[in-house]
Write a structure and sequence with these properties.
The protein is 63% helix and 0% strand. It is mainly alpha-helical. Helix 3 packs antiparallel against helix 4 and helix 3 runs parallel beside helix 6. The longest helix is centred in the middle third of the chain and has 24 residues.
């Protein structure tokens, strides 16, 4: 039977916060097997508690994954917000910094990134998860709103559409070329350069470059 690394000589759960231990074990298993590659029972074995113990904190595997994803989105949002820096030193530079932060997170936190975007959780799984995800997207939307402020009102693209396009571009490049796990594909340039070029071409096409 396949056993997770933490069950092959790793540290089990002895005392303290069981919910934290379950989240940590889930992250380890995501790194090793991907977000769909293990069961709730394997998380329990990795922590070293009885099969019934986790249910005091999470009603099922999806609830545990939602908590992992929520924490990931909160970390992600904090990084994007710091990179945006209230649009300083200027909105274009700040948007580029947000793109770099997006790629940096995918590279540095592949387990969180996979839980956030690849766990196939229902959209209404958790109000807290939805709020955390919305908060991260709000950084991109705010950036796009500031970028189009100087454009003539009759030529401004919808900020929501623009932010969705930028998000899709950043996410696609991060998922294909910028992540920190074995799913990353090779590209003959830095992912940051690829994303910056794509954003600049897109903004120029909108007249917002």
């Amino acid at each position: 039977m396949r056993r997770p690394k933490s069950d092959r000589g790793g540290r089990g759960y002895h005392h303290g916060n069981l919910a934290e231990a379950l989240v940590d074990a889930a992250l380890d298993l995501i790194r090793e097997f991907g977000p769909a590659g293990f069961s709730f029972a394997e998380v329990t074995r990795a922590v070293g508690v009885s099969p019934a113990a986790p249910y005091r904190h999470f009603r099922d595997r999806d609830a545990l994954m939602a908590e992992v994803a929520r924490r990931g989105f909160e970390k992600f949002s904090a990084r994007l917000t710091k990179a945006w820096n209230n649009g300083s030193p200027d909105s274009m530079t700040a948007l580029k910094n947000v793109g770099k932060a997006y790629l940096s997170f995918a590279r540095a936190e592949p387990a969180y990134y996979a839980a956030m975007f690849e766990a196939r959780l229902p959209s209404d799984m958790s109000r807290e998860l939805s709020q955390a995800s919305d908060q991260a997207f709000a950084v991109l939307r705010g950036a796009c709103e500031l970028l189009i402020e100087d454009m003539p009102p009759n030529n401004r693209p919808p900020a929501l559409m623009m932010s969705l396009h930028v998000w899709a571009m950043a996410h696609g490049i991060a998922s294909l070329f910028g992540r920190g796990d074995q799913a990353r594909r090779k590209v003959p340039m830095k992912p940051e350069d690829l994303l910056e070029a794509g954003i600049l071409v897109y903004l120029e096409g909108l007249g917002a470059g």
